[in-house]
Sequence to fold (324 residues):
Amino acid sequence: MMILPRNSDGCPYLLLAPMEGVGDRAFRKAMASIGGFDEGVQDFLRVPANAHIKSLATRYQSNEITPFPLAAQLMGSDISLMAEMTREMEARGAPRVDLNCGCPSNTVTGKGAGSSLLKDPNHLYTIAKAMVDAVSIPVTAKLRSGFEDTSLFKENLLAAQESGIQYLTLHPRTKVDGYGPPARWDLIAEAKSFLRIPVVGNGDILTVADACKMLQNTGCDALMIGRGSIINPFLFHEIKAHFSGKPYVPQWEQLLAYFTTYMAETPVHLPERTKINRMKQLLGFFCKGTPALLDRRQEMLQTSDEEVGAFFKSVRPYLENGWR
Ligand SMILES: Cc1cc2nc3c(=O)[nH]c(=O)nc-3n(C[C@H](O)[C@H](O)[C@H](O)COP(=O)(O)O)c2cc1C
Fold:
């Protein structure tokens, strides 16, 4: 069984969560410029019934955030295509392939993939097992706690375990919950009580104190953080510093590199307006964690600039003065 290693200070393995839309390649590259996490996970690659596997697979680049490993995540419900795509990911150098059992989107769930897999533990088992049997690299799964409710919670997690996956990540909200109610960390503790395989705890970790509380209250083996890392891109370093006992002092240059990397890695073909809106979204998250900026957020994000570089130039003084 795979072990999720702790570092020499005892800090558990830290994963950067997959976040389709917000947490795309540009964001992962930006996060890699700051570092602190141990592994990234690409947002889901949808494998539809008519998928052309070879061309779809090129969307995954194993060296995207080198030196950090990047796992691939697949979402689909066709057993043989999912197995074939898992093989393709292995051929492309993926260190691990994750099965998405959580995406709440109706366009996805309508076709029996993502969180819809949580309605049928047998199907979940069959897909996960086909993926496990297809490759020699680790296969894992990321699950919500259920579809409408948690009545199949235990069955789903056991089905995933029995398929031969190496570990699972639990985001303890149902599909129906969306992102609304607080993540039910008690379910992570429950999962730990009956599973043999390691469990990665996920959901609502925004601070070092949250990370410690999650570890203490659930006994989970590793942590995955999504939105908390957009609000505070230094969070992974801060968690590591808590374990090492050495203070972590973020530098302005790192933050500047984070935003400029994000800008540089945003696809060039996008209209400037879209690039500006994406930048605003990232800045909006960042402001949430920075009281001095939150107060001036409206003023800061208002712009008549036509080009993303000019826009960033106008927000840069706000950031430089208020980021700490
Ligand atoms: C915008 C957005 C996109 C997401 N995309 C994915 C995805 O592609 N695959 C996945 O497994 N989870 C996805 N998630 C769920 C996150 O990985 C994570 O489980 C969830 O946000 C809870 O963790 P957090 O509170 O640390 O953000 C997404 C979440 C958000 C907010």
